[in-house]
Amino acid sequence: MTPQARVQAAIDLLDEIVAAAREGGAAADTLIARYFKSRRYAGSKDRRAVRDLVYTAIRRSGERPETGRAAMIGVADPELFDGSPHAPAPIGPDERTMPATPVPGWLIDRLAFSDPEELAALLERAPLDLRVNRLKSTREVVCSSLPDAVPTPHAPDGLRLPEGFPIETHPLWESGAVEIQDEASQIVAMACRAGPGMTVIDLCAGAGGKTLALAADMDGHGRLIASDTVKARLDRLTPRAERAGASAIERRLLDGGRESSALADLAGQADIVLVDAPCSGSGTWRRNPEARWRLTPQRLDALAALQARVIDIAVPLLKPGGALIYAVCSLIDAEGRDQVAAALSRHSSLTAETPITHVGRMRGDGVMLTPARDRTDGFFVARLTRADRP
């Protein structure tokens, strides 16, 4: 492919990504993979160059552009817009590039931190973090087989590899000795303080990344329940748990809107309930920068309502003295600080504890982790304990 053709390919892909963001379609990575699957003539250098152009344009534009061309103008060399075969048409005198902004304008005042360093870090390339599975190995043993890995600064089982390291073809991953998990997610699991013999519920388990971390903390002893309302997500936990040696995990597929009845037998029994709630994902924009284009004020309001509902489902599951760990991979106060303040107001039996002390900074009754300060994904985590007596 010529340089001009690469720019046109990036524009074509961006058109698809913009439409998917507007209409709730597939993620950018999926669309890029599909695009090149039907274009076998593109070599590895071409694919890499086009992908880099696409993601440079996405990271540059906090606001969702109208077209892929609008996103690409200001990124690629204007001389490549020359109208030659397979090239984009020349840039017209009235065409303007998208302004370079880190986040949508409507959102800037809703972020917990909005100084330039924090905003810039939201769009940096993320490293590849691993969690060593203590059911099968130790960090020291894994490090001896991964010379490129360095210990993460905050999580005792964490390792960090360069972006793009092919860990899923490595024997350590295939044997279950390591799992791909950002250090912030590992810290959320640490905040649960799970241990052997406990009853632990991962209420929004998804594919089970934090469930597996909890299983390692429990060392195979106790009761660990992973629940979710989406079968496809929960089904992914089964092979992961088998690989990790955590086969005793109970799975519960919940019927959306009827979760409480499906969990009624667990009322008042849980030492820990982890609510890793559905959220905007604003703390993971460095991994999924086009997610900024999908978020709207209406979507944020809907997520906040869902988060409050999940918290209300979780509270009756706690035994006296049990703890609800609330976490969102978000830097938006409506999903973190404000959500916890409202929960404490609704549930007089709950009191807030500091969930972690060695990393992050307090934000209301919880702790905020950010890419700029902590070198992790952005996360808010709070620990709410039920009174010993009713």
Q: What does this protein look like?
A:
36% of the residues lie in helices and 17% in strands. The protein is globular. It has helices at residues 3-23, 28-37, 44-60, 68-72, 116-121, 139-145, 171-174, 183-192, 209-218, 231-235, 237-244, 259-262, 297-314, 337-346, 371-374; strands at residues 128-132, 150-151, 158-161, 178-180, 199-202, 223-228, 250-253, 270-276, 318-328, 350-353, 361-363, 366-369, 379-386. It has 3 domains: 3-87; 128-180, Alpha-Beta Plaits (2-Layer Sandwich), CATH 3.30.70.1170; 183-386, Vaccinia Virus protein VP39 (Rossmann fold). The termini are far apart. The strands form 2 sheets. Strands 5, 6, 7, 8, 9, 10, 11, 12 and 13 form a 9-stranded mixed beta sheet that branches. The protein has a 4-stranded antiparallel beta sheet with strand order 2-3-1-4. The mean pLDDT is 93. It is of the alpha/beta class and 390 residues long.
